[in-house]
Each structure stands twice: as structure tokens, then as C-alpha cells.
Amino acid sequence: MNNRPPRQPRRALHGVILLDKPLGLSSNDALQKVRRLMRAEKAGHTGTLDPLATGLLPLCFGAATKFAQVSLEADKAYRATLKLGQTTTTGDGEGQVVQERLVQVDDSAIAIACAAMTGEIDQVPPMHSALKHEGRALYEYAREGIEIERASRRITIHAIDIVGWQGDSLTLDVRCSKGTYIRTLAESIGEHLGCGAYLQGLRRTASGGTTLDGAVTLDALQAMTEAERDTHLQAADVLLSDWPAVVLDESEAGRFLTGLRRRVKLDDAPQVRVYGPNPTAANGQLPRVLLGSAHIKAGELIPTRLLSPAEVQGLLTPVL
Buried-most residue among 12, 174, 277, 310 (CB within 10 A)? Predict the structure, then answer.
């Protein structure tokens, strides 16, 4: 006899949860756990965060999944802890130590090494990464002892701030472009210092316009009631919060939702978030509702990603 409780039905949720991902959990595992807790019909994450890393992982539900790519393409910020004096096979603490060197550094040497790695640089992706080659992740080849030739990539390190160092431990705050491998950056800084280094700890602190402010841990979500979890569901446009906003009237909003370009007296912009009026605003709700994203060129508002009428209605409907 099956004594399991009946499975709860999925819900049409629309929004974003800023998860403070725990150590040891893959991004997809974290997504599936939160999706089950939220009983969400549709969900997606905004780019992988290594199981050995903690910190900000925006999780998208419903209409918000259409903008997951925004966070994937956005600049990131990390707090990285480097272990000086050793290099490993993987560039992090999981690998075998392959070389040990004496650590003889000072504040000036660290500042010079960090400055050398700031700006536009070329970086070769590590073998122990999820980057694909002929349909397989590079780390799968690495586990088999196979080295795949990788082309270097141009990335941007916007800033490296020295948080502190003591003995063989160096902590840095890094702001960088998408596609940056912090373990590779750690190894490069170690080589500049002449002692080698590997990435001992990593915590993502920001992605685009979102930060750890307002983020919630998986343990906290699991301890909450469903109603309490729902209070952590942020608006579907939170990933677009640093984009300019364009608000259309009712007739223009309807045409925009069909994919038509609209004439606007606005300057060119590579990306904007577009809103229409909220007919239920009299009930105390927000006076506008998200319609999608667009760009502006030569006085035309050109749709990029549009919500469906059902998704727009979902944004106006209270979570049940």
C-alpha cells in the first residue's frame, strides 16, 4: 500500500528568486530543489555556478525565464580566496598538488600582480570546466587524462580589490565580464607573484543589477511555509532593473505585444524594458505591467523578447 502523500499540483509562478547557493550543489540541482519547493510549472537558472562556489544564483520562474539570458550575459562580481604557494591539477582545492613554492610577497607585489590582470586580457578556459567540445564537457576529457586544445578568449576584468592577505591566503573582490574563469585568474595571479596559487574558495556577490541583498538560502526556504516562500518571489523584471524603462499607453501596448515596431521620441538604446498600463491598478496593484524587452533605433521601439498574453495576465494575478 502506498502511503505517500498526494503530489501537489504545479503552479504558474512568474518571478525570480535570488538564491544564495550552498557549497557542493550544482546550479541545476539547486534549481530543481527550489522548483519543487515553489511547485513551479516552469523554471530555469541564469548560468552555472560551480558546485564548489557559493553565492548569488538568480532562479527564474514562468515569464521571467525569457530574460534568464540577460543575467547570463551580465557582468559578475565575486569574492575569491587564493591559496598561495601551491598549484593543483584542477586550479582549485579538488585537484592534486603538482607544485609547491615559497611564498615571499608583500602588499606592493600583490597590488602589481592584480593590476597586471585588470582590463582586457586573453584567458584560456581550464580543462576542468563545463565548456563543451564535440558534445562533451571539457572536465570529462580531463578526468580521462585527455588534454583538448582550447582557444583563448578575450575577457574584461573591471576591477580587483584586495580584501586582505595573511600568510598563504589572499582574498580578493573581482568584478568581471561574462565568461571569466576565476580559477584561471587565480592561477595567473599566482604566477605573477612567482609562487603559484589555486582557487581555495569562491562566492558570487553580484550578477548584473542583482546582488546578495534580498537573497535567501536553500535551508531557509526549506524551513518556510509556502506562503513565506512566496514573499521571496521577486518581480519578473528584476533582472532588467538597470535597463531604461519605456511605458506605452493601452493602444500602443497592444500593438507592441503583437510584435509591431512603435514610433517613440526617445534616444537610441541597446536594451530597454517595456511596460503597459495595468487595468487592475485600482485594486492597489502596480500601475504598469511588464510586456517584454526591446531596443530603440532611429526613433523605433523594436521588440526583442515579448511576453505572451497569458504571461502578462499571470503577472497581474496574485500567487495562489
Answer: 174
